[in-house]
Amino acid sequence: MLALVGVMALAFAPLYFAVASLARATLLAAREESARAIGRAVAAHVSDVRARGDRDLARVLASHVGPGGVDAICVYTADGIRVACAGDEREMARISAPVAPMRESITTVRGAAGRALDVVVPNAGGAVIARLRTDESTDRSAPLIRLVGGYMLVFAFAIAFTGYLTLTRLIVRPVEALGLAADKFAAGGRRIDVPRSGARELVELSSSVAQMTSRLVEEEAKLRKKVGELERAQLSLQQAQSQLVRSERLASVGRLSAGLAHEIGNPITAIMGLLELLLAGDLTPDEQRDFLGRMSRETERIHFVLRDLLAFSRPDEATPDSDGAEIADVVQVASEALALARPQRTFKSLTLSLDAPEGPLCAAIAPRRLSQVLVNLVLNAGDAQDGRADGRVTVRARAHGGRVVIEVEDNGPGVSAGVRERIFEPFVTTKEVGKGTGLGLAVCRGIVEASGGTIELDSGYAGGARFVVTLGAPVAAPPSRRG
Predict the structure, then answer these.
(1) Nearest to 364 by CA among 406, 321, 311, 424
(2) Cis peptide before 426, with omega less than 30 degrees from 0?
(3) Does position 324 have pLDDT exceeding 50, yes or no?
(4) DSSP annotation of 169
(5) 344 pLDDT band (50/70/90 cuts)?
(6) Residue 74 and residue 85 in contact, taking contact as beta carbons nearer than 8 Å
(7) Of 448, 431, 307, which is closest to residue 380 (Cα–Cα)?
(8) For residue 285, what are the CA distances in angstroms to 274, 277, 290, 323?
(9) Is the pLDDT score of 428 beyond 50?
(10) Which residues contact 172 (CB under 8 A, 6 or more apart)?
(11) Is residue 453 within 8 Å of 442, Cβ to Cβ?
(12) How many other C-beta atoms lie within 10 A of the C-beta of residue 306?
């Protein structure tokens, strides 16, 4: 509306001034033409009177002077001498004698009462000058100009009012109704009432918005249905997972019970048999000492099984003889582990070697725990050689990617495919019955993982068996080497 009013102002204001100027110019031109006609008529009449004599000249001149006509009129001879004058004294004083040669002319002058015209009409004896006012034409054009201005104002108001009603009914109200409907829908409404009246484009837009909201409601319903299905599926998966966890726990307890019964049942059976023989009597003192020694060994075997089982369940608890250090020099611990293994009978014919960099190589693990892991891995590697003359066990240590990697490998028969996936589970062993509890690697895994590391069997190594231990490198300084 402001733009429309501005356009009308730009259009009507210049038009009003143009009409006013045109009206004034038209009236002025008409006044000049009338003045010329009046001047000619008066001059002709005066010439006729002079031709008859000068007696009635003043009366004739006075008869032509009056409101709406001539303000002043003068008669001059050919020499420019004024013969007679009539009219307003001020105007007569301002009239100048015509300049020879005398010609018919109309001159705009400034009279006593304002703008005026001097009409010069020559005749046989001289010339007649008639002065007529032209300001009256301006005053007469004022009502016409006011009428045109009023018409323009009324017409502009009618256009603005009609435009306001039209825009309000066809555009503003439909747009407001559409905005309110969109706000209600955005606030959670499921039905949108769009306007059905207004401009054709707005009606089409409202129809498109209604269709869009309907599709949104349908898609939301489908999405809610899908979410419900996903929630039910998630609940089913959680229930299935809980059942699997319970089943796995039961299976783990079963495997643990079976292994424990196997590892403890055999020694207990042997002890019970030996005890029955002792109770039956008829044994020599040497036989009694032999039976008691066997019972002691079987009891120690049960003790070792229970000790390893306790270490497996609590791998990160420190023992009373632990030094409490959390940083180990891998090279030193590996050297000590190999030194402990060399005097064993199994390693008499084997080659033990250490491949490690010079200087300390620190890992974030207690030295005693790392020693326990490496001794267990080295002893397992030696047991797998079974007294081979060309057997070898190699321990490698290196820093890689901000971590410490330790490898214990041998050139024995390796680990069978059926055992690889369960090699770190409790009571899983490749040794003969009575020679191993199956808890060593499980304990090693618990120790390494409690220190933030990993231990795994290198399945890609085909020359025997290779266990890889990865530990984090510490930030603190390495411990001093012990002598």
Answers:
(1) 406
(2) no
(3) no
(4) I
(5) confident
(6) yes
(7) 431
(8) 14, 13, 9, 46
(9) yes
(10) none
(11) no
(12) 15
Average pLDDT, the chain: 78
Ordered structural domains, the chain, with CATH:
2-143 (3.30.450.20), 328-472 (3.30.565.10)
List the Cα angle 234/238/241 in 5-degree steps. 135
HSE value, Cβ hemisphere, 13 Å, CA-based, for 224? 6
Using the predicted structure, report yes or no on whether residue 301 has a pLDDT greater than 90. no
Residue in 360, 338, 393, 374 with CA at minimum distance from that of residue 481: 360
Whether the CB-CB separation of 362 and 403 falls below 8 Å is answered with no
**How far is residue 410's CA from residue 430's CA, in Å, rounded to a whole number?**
15
Please report, to the nearest 10 degrees, the dihedral formed by the alpha carbons of residues 136, 140, 141, 144 taken in order: 180
Enter the tokens of residue 98.
Answer: 């015509």
pLDDT for the residue numbered 481: 47
Q: Which residue has the tokens 């292994």?
A: 259
Q: Contact, 117 vs 107, CB < 8 A?
A: yes
Please answer whether residues 424 and 442 qualify as being in contact, where contact means their C-beta atoms are separated by less than 8 angstroms: yes
Contact 378, 395 (CB under 8 A): yes
Query: For the residues 138-158, what does the mean pLDDT come to?
Result: 77
Question: Which pair of tokens denotes residue 399?
Answer: 């820093």
Higher pLDDT, 482 or 39: 39
Please state which of the ranges 53-62, 237-246, 336-345 shows the lowest mean pLDDT: 53-62
The predicted structure's pLDDT at residue 54: 57
pLDDT tens readout for residues 209-240: 778 888 888 888 899 899 999 999 999 999 98
Q: What mean pLDDT comes out for the span 22-44?
A: 75
One-letter amino acid identity for 206? S
Helices marked H in 356-464: 367-385, 417-420, 440-450
72 closest CA partner among 82, 84, 85 = 85
Residues 6+ apart with CB under 8 A from 252: none
**Measured between alpha carbons, how far is 255 from 428 in angstroms, rounded to an integer?**
10
Helix 285-313 / helix 440-450 crossing angle, nearest 10 deg: 30
Classify the C-alpha dihedral 457-460-461-465 as positive or negative.
positive
Please report, to the nearest 10 degrees, the dihedral formed by the alpha carbons of residues 423, 428, 429, 433 taken in order.
-170
Residue closest to 464 by CA, chosen among 346, 383, 365, 376 = 383
Phi, psi (degrees; rounded to nearest 5) at 359 = 85, 175
pLDDT winner (highest mean) among 6-15, 222-231, 271-280: 222-231
